[in-house]
Design goal:
- It contains eight helices and no strands.
- It is mainly α and 196 residues long.
- Helix 5 (84-120) packs antiparallel against helix 6.
- It is flat, with a radius of gyration of 26 Å.
Length: 196
């Protein structure tokens, strides 16, 4: 039998190395390291956000559709700029929102903690699981309503220029398909921006 040339052996070894290396890491979960959390489904940042009445991303549908939230309006009041009477009205909305959101956030945390304990102690079946999930999701739905409804309260306090400035300051661009900038080929612009 003729010996296999070294270059062929090296080629086979190099071809198999990535597969072997991937197999070594295939068992790692993107959740690795989270098993030490007190409540596995919530990070410490999530818990802090809920406890302070923060938005927790629940109002993105309003925010990204140009309906400003009270917290960020107050944060940007000088850059927009907002008048004193607008600031006072938005502060009232924010205070009211926070007063409602904090206890509901605590309910959501308590629900996730109960679910955590049920799984940790192996004390859960389908019926109890359904009840626990329904309690958590009821709190989440209420919390989302609280935040989204406050977004609905702000546009009537602002003029169009202030809303446009808010969107600009938050980094949201206008629809690139609505206006082709001067000096650009319209067809090329629409193609590059995936305009229909």
């Amino acid at each position: 039998m003729k010996p296999v040339p070294l270059t062929i052996c090296l080629g086979i070894l190099l071809a198999l190395t990535p597969a072997w290396a991937m197999a070594q890491h295939a068992g790692h979960s993107p959740y690795a390291g989270q098993e030490g959390r007190a409540i596995k489904s919530l990070s410490n940042e999530d818990v802090e956000e809920l406890r302070r009445g923060g938005g927790w991303g629940l109002a993105l549908v309003a925010e990204l559709n140009g309906v400003p939230g009270p917290f960020h309006l107050l944060e940007l009041k000088d850059e927009i700029p907002l008048r004193t009477d607008q600031v006072a009205a938005i502060e009232a909305i924010f205070i009211d929102m926070k007063a409602e959101a904090v206890p509901v956030g605590e309910r959501l945390i308590a629900g996730e903690k109960a679910l955590e304990e049920a799984f940790a102690t192996n004390d859960v079946g389908p019926e109890r699981l359904r009840v626990l999930i329904e309690e958590i999701e009821a709190a989440r739905a209420e919390l989302r309503f609280i935040h989204l409804s406050r977004h609905l309260s702000t546009p009537e306090l602002l003029d169009a220029a202030q809303i446009a400035r808010y969107k600009e300051l938050r980094g949201y661009r206008e629809d690139p398909c609505a206006h082709v900038p001067e000096g650009h080929d319209a067809g090329m612009w629409r193609r590059h921006n995936n305009c229909g």
